Amino acid sequence: MQVPVSFEFYPPKTDEQRAQLDRTAARLKQLAPEYVSCTFGAGGSTLSQTPEAVERLRQAHGLDAAPHISCVGGTRAELAALLDHYRAMGCGRIVALRGDLPSGMARTGDFRFASELVAFIRDRHDCFHVEVGCYPETHPQSEDALADLRHFKAKVDAGAHGAITQYFYNADAYFRFVDDARALGVAIPIVPGIMPISNFTQLRRFSETCGAEIPRWVARRMQAYGDDVGAIREFAADLVAGLCRRLVEGGAPSLHFYTLNLAKPTLNVIARLQ
User: Fold this and answer.
1) 3-class SS at 12?
2) Domain 5-271 falls in which CATH fold?
3) What is the DSSP letter of 112?
4) How many whole angstroms separate alpha carbon 76 and alpha carbon 167?
5) Angle at CA 187, nearest 5°, toward 185 and 189?
6) Are 131 and 160 within 8 A, CB to CB?
7) Where are the alpha helices (H) located in the chain, listed in sequence order?
8) Around Cβ 240, how many Cβ atoms within 10 Å?
9) Parallel/antiparallel/unpaired status of strands 65-70 and 129-134
10) Active-site residues: which are they?
11) Is the pTM above the cut of 0.90?
12) What are 220-254's pLDDT values in tens digits?
């Protein structure tokens, strides 16, 4: 099954993490990704680390690296300087997100909503292809599903060129979300975000925070395997590959993998799609 893929990394903070990112990037670039993205830390904690990681991915690994930019923690002047830096670096794609407020932080930076950030990016540098986020299972802080859709459309109306979803394990949620977005007049590509399963305890914790639902039967199957690491790995790869296959057959334009800077879980899934 041939479908374009892209990968998300997070910026390393230590020498050990840098070496891990290098190993992962070297393995995954063999799959010829359309691009890779690099996250932006909560509260602007990676204002310097994200640009460094993006430059390394571009220069050392020859990857088309797209930085994430978040509303949280960055002033208008800081984000303008980042955009100028990324343009000078040769980046052609930006992932623009509102971002989540860290614990104890009362407000965002100079932008409250991702739609405002998208408009700012398009106004300052119209050369960037701007990706935004969306939530097939509804953003956990949204009033309801329809309000969440309206917020998504506002980002599109502000000038977004494409969207990447939060991860999910229910393909029907994605298809319904796309149908609802199209009914509102949203025409941009909506790319499903895929989270390979490497650590189920960690995944469950992530999911509680971001509102992604783990089907009960999946959780119970994982529980049944206990400490059988091999069985868990095979089941997880089969599960996510089956999800990917259904998404592509249903019309998903490409697949965006959240790697957590690990190569093997993503490779295990993609090997099953060959």
Assistant:
1) coil
2) TIM Barrel (3.20.20)
3) S
4) 29
5) 145
6) yes
7) 15-28, 49-59, 76-89, 114-124, 145-157, 171-183, 200-210, 216-225, 229-249, 264-271
8) 24
9) unpaired
10) 8
11) yes
12) 988 888 878 888 899 999 999 999 999 999 999 99
